[in-house]
Design brief:
Blueprint lengths: L3 E7 L7 H17 L4 E7 L8 H8 L9 H11 L4 E4 L5 H9 L5 E6 L3 H8 L7 H18 L2 E4 L2 H11 L5 E2 L23 E5 L4 H13 L7 E6 L5 H4 L9 E4 L5 H6 L2 E4 L9 H8 L3 E4 L1 H4 L6 H4 E3 L3 H13 L7 H11 L4 H9 L3
Parallel strand pairs: 1-2, 1-3, 3-4, 4-5, 5-6, 7-8, 7-10, 8-9, 10-11, 11-12
Length: 365
């Protein structure tokens, strides 16, 4: 049986972000195809790796080595990969590894997985005032380009990302591997109660610029016009109490660094996802579908999800659309458990579909 080495950004901690969830899906799917004994994982940031100072990391951006890599360490990884039939580079910011492998004459298959278009991601993430911002963006863009020029197989999350790769780097993705993960809500029966007149709306997301901008917009533009209870749940979101002091209503509950997110999905009457910028797919949308939630989300949050948005909750890009749909759901006695959302998850984004897809990606059908 062929052997595969997965290059991951970091060893995940107890609180997983969206990227961690997708990476874990990738690892499990690859292990299922090739057998766990034939798949090894190398963490750029993890146990046994020397912690790099931010100053050193900034210096190596100049040679297109994203934070965590140095020229010497990249060569070490290249030597290690030579013993494997496949290498799966799980984040395109490490595309320089693909470039070095190609130049070293590696005979195995190089697979690069794009969690998003990293130029789009980091352009949104990095503050405009950040010293060295242009250097980081140049490094990120070059690594994206290395993946497109030197990988045997490019995998993206969405058709939109694939089209952007073609536009930016002249190559479409060879496979689309959308967000899919193990069902965590299977049970014999589901809630039968209805959305109350004052619904509990939950926003779930880590402290990240697009999330902060989205929830600030919602609190300023929508929250004062509807009768709801609002919870904000996510890693690092306690910082809103400082940065959001001018707009965060004291009645809004903020829960930071919760080790288990399931209780917040389950208790929500409506999931709100007002995200206006980004790339890739939103894992929180998929999880909301899995838990059978009524979901009110922007076009950006629905990217990669082909379904009837009104049946799943609603597609809302303007404050008036959020207000209208919240009032409709709260006033009509709509079920708290959305059977259509749950059905769409099971049919399209459950990990039961992943095995066949990843067999095709590896070419072992």
């Amino acid at each position: 049986m062929p052997r595969l080495l997965i290059i991951l950004y970091k060893r995940p901690n107890e609180i997983l972000n969206g990227g961690d969830v997708v990476s874990l899906r990738n690892v499990k799917a690859l292990e299922s195809v090739l057998g766990k004994d034939n798949v090894d994982v190398y963490h750029i940031h993890g146990e046994g790796t020397r912690k790099m100072s931010h100053l050193a990391g900034a210096f190596h951006f100049l040679s297109n080595h994203f934070y965590g890599l140095t020229p010497g360490r990249t060569e070490e990884i290249v030597r290690k990969v030579m013993d494997y039939d496949y290498v799966w580079i799980d984040r395109s910011v490490f595309g320089i590894i693909a470039n070095k492998l190609r130049r070293a004459g590696y005979k195995g298959r190089i697979i690069c997985f794009f969690h998003n278009i990293e130029m789009v991601f980091f352009d949104a993430k990095l503050p405009k005032w950040l010293p060295g911002r242009s250097v980081v963006l140049r490094c990120v863009r070059q690594n994206d380009a290395y993946c497109c020029s030197d990988a045997d197989t490019v995998v993206a999350l969405t058709e939109r990302d694939s089209e952007n790769l073609l536009k930016q780097y002249g190559r479409k993705a060879d496979f689309i591997a959308p967000v899919m993960f193990k069902d965590r809500y299977a049970r014999d029966s589901y809630p039968t109660d209805v959305i109350p007149p004052k619904p509990l709306c939950v926003f779930l997301g880590s402290y990240f610029p697009a999330n902060v901008q989205g929830i600030e917009w919602f609190v300023r533009e929508v929250y004062p016009k509807v009768d709801i209870t609002l919870k904000i749940v996510g890693k690092g979101m306690n910082q809103l109490r400082t940065v959001g002091k001018d707009w965060l209503d004291p009645a809004i509950e903020v829960i930071a660094d919760a080790p288990q997110l399931e209780p917040y999905f389950i208790e929500a009457d409506i999931m709100i996802i007002p995200i206006f910028k980004g790339s890739g797919m939103k894992v929180k949308t998929c999880e909301s579908l899995m838990f059978g939630k009524n979901i009110l989300a922007t076009d950006e949050a629905w990217v990669g999800y082909d379904l009837d948005y009104n049946r799943a909750g609603g597609r809302c890009n303007e404050a008036s659309e959020y207000v209208q749909r919240i009032n409709e759901l709260a006033g009509s006695g709509a079920p708290r458990f959305n059977a259509y959302s749950r059905e769409m998850f099971l049919n399209n984004w459950s990990d039961t579909r992943a095995l066949g897809l990843f067999r095709r990606i590896l070419g072992v059908d």
